[in-house]
Amino acid sequence: MEALPVGQRMPTLEEVARAAGVSRATVSRAINGGERVSANARDAIDRAISELGYIPNRAARTLVTRRTDSVALVVPETGNRFVSDPVLTGALQGITTALAGTDLQLVLLVAQQVGDTAGQLRYLRAGHVDGALVISHHGEDQLPAELAKTHLPFVFGGRPLDPGSVEVPYVDADNVGGGRTAATHLLERGARLIATVAGPRNMPAGVDRLIGWREVLAAAGRPVDLVDYGDFTAEGGAAAMGRLLERHPDLDAVFVASDLMATGALRVIQDSGRRVPDDIAVVGYDDSVLARTAIPPLTTVRQPAEEMGRRMAELLIDQLRGAPPQSAGEILPTELVVRASA
Amino acid sequence: MEALPVGQRMPTLEEVARAAGVSRATVSRAINGGERVSANARDAIDRAISELGYIPNRAARTLVTRRTDSVALVVPETGNRFVSDPVLTGALQGITTALAGTDLQLVLLVAQQVGDTAGQLRYLRAGHVDGALVISHHGEDQLPAELAKTHLPFVFGGRPLDPGSVEVPYVDADNVGGGRTAATHLLERGARLIATVAGPRNMPAGVDRLIGWREVLAAAGRPVDLVDYGDFTAEGGAAAMGRLLERHPDLDAVFVASDLMATGALRVIQDSGRRVPDDIAVVGYDDSVLARTAIPPLTTVRQPAEEMGRRMAELLIDQLRGAPPQSAGEILPTELVVRASA
DNA sequence: TTGAAAGCGATACCAA
DNA sequence: TTGGTATCGCTTTCAA
């Protein structure tokens, strides 16, 4: 990366000052808040700025302020996870929306290999960004503890499983509540034997949804052992559903902890000659595009992905403004979207 | 954004120099290529660097080199487009892979409003990045022409519709070829009356796939007027399919220009009492997750999204190294993925 | 091969 | 309210 194509020469503060007939210091003040600058000077400076098309040089500014005006979006996992994760894309949406009101730029920090947090930490520690938004699925890594050491403001998306005895500010959807909602809906529909395809045991999202489901069934005096686990893939969902049907051929409802897994479950159920929802009612999770395109369309628990992203960004911005990090996580409510499958 | 949380104080070049017993200049040379530095000095410097945990300050470096070591990913559209676009997420994957070998950081530049290219251009012109990767669907905006004026290296993903008399380096999938492949497959399956649900007429991807389809049918002496248009949504696909069935109740095959539209088409076809593929064979486009989860699973044309992203990044890196921009677009082959729907 | 010193373009302190 | 000036951390001549 030696030879450098010639870019436009940008006007500097100096030139603006000269054109406006004032000093650099005055222009700088005018640009940053405009305190203690006379109306006269202001006008001249504004005119000079727009005539010259002046844009402050970020590098120069960063050098002295030690502020980069950019924040990182840390995505711990690589591979098609990024693609398939229904929350991530929505969160990204919310994040950019929230950042739009500021002059903060979003820098993408995608792990090169699964579990490669070292490289990301190096970057974060280097002071290249003012803060970090961390999307976390597997909460088990040491990212929270390590991040806390850096003194860099950060907010997690998704509750870290093991914060390592540090307070971690995070935003999460109410997974327990979502599990409750799904179970309650199936109960109210009159289901007699309710199963669940849960997510992985090492992921907070998987664990919490199961907890909610279990809670409601236990309270209703129903069995809570019709449980099998998938890995949040369609194949995993299909396999788990198959095992459940084998063990409990008479089950008539199932809560599947993700829409993607639910598509797999749907296939297995229909292949077994059963109809959805008449023989088996199915509730999914995420309200992703898959829920709408599935046949039959899935009743599912909507995650407020975009709002999660927005709140993450807002909490980070608060910290950048000097507020102390939130000591507790923020839990956003989920919502049942009723379609044809249950 | 006034108050600034105290970050760690990072060691500077100066301190490394002192620790190594050499001058700043020598350390700098050692870091940048290591030309004209004695082995002795090298060793001492390397040791000092790792002991102190030194990381160069990007802002200071940028200030003098006028290089930012970051490139922008420009996403012209906002809203859930980002989410639903099957190519974008894959391309992102390829881009980060290609960038992993360099020290380039990816900065996300999402348009705040549809068609708001002005803000993006301002940012790009400000010299905040060394180059830009532009994801383009609607080729009609003036982004290509405006970008060319900035002298900033850039590469488009997706062929711009109207380059405005400038050569635009781009990477695209072979949409015409994809349309041909789909049509050919349906012909070879023995279909008699082949329709298509095309994409919007103002999007290159939509237009090109239709051209390919038409080409093959014309060459085979088949009618080429069983065409209706959708907007790349499931609803659009369903509506277009409905119109086609009404006009041509006897059609027995259809090429739908995106998997998402195909899910809508599938629903309409099945609701009309017809079976897929027995009564109507369906070929989709994208090989997205929807193709795999659809019932029946979709035969579809796979876009090499990840490879597109990788090539985009590679072409940009070439330019950053001083190579002239490619004068012609680069077209990557598509591939038919045969599943149950056709 | 090495080092001294001059910037790069901003901010911020201090006097005026 | 202003302007002069030191400073941020690095790269890059230019001499030695």
Keywords, please?
six-stranded mixed sheet, alpha/beta, disordered N terminus, 342 residues, homodimer, DNA-binding, 14 helices, six-stranded parallel sheet
Tell me which protein chains meet in the greatest interface and how many residues each side has.
A-B, 70 and 70 residues
| Discrete helix count of chain A | 14
Structural class determined from secondary elements of chain A: alpha/beta
Strand arrangement within the widest β-sheet of chain A reads 2-1-3-4-5-11
| Distance separating the two termini of chain A | 58 Å
The pLDDT mean of chain A sits at: 91
Radius of gyration of chain A: 26 Å
Query: Unreliable stretches of chain A, pLDDT < 50, 5 or more residues?
Result: 1-6
Number of strands of chain A: 12
Major sheet of chain A: size, sense and barrel closure?
6 strands, parallel
Q: Give the assembly state of these chains.
A: homodimer
Fraction in beta strands of chain A: 15-25%
Secondary structure: helix percent of chain A: 40-55%
Q: What is the helix/strand order of chain A?
A: HHHHEHHEHEHEEHEHEHEHEHEHEE
| Approximate shape of chain A | elongated
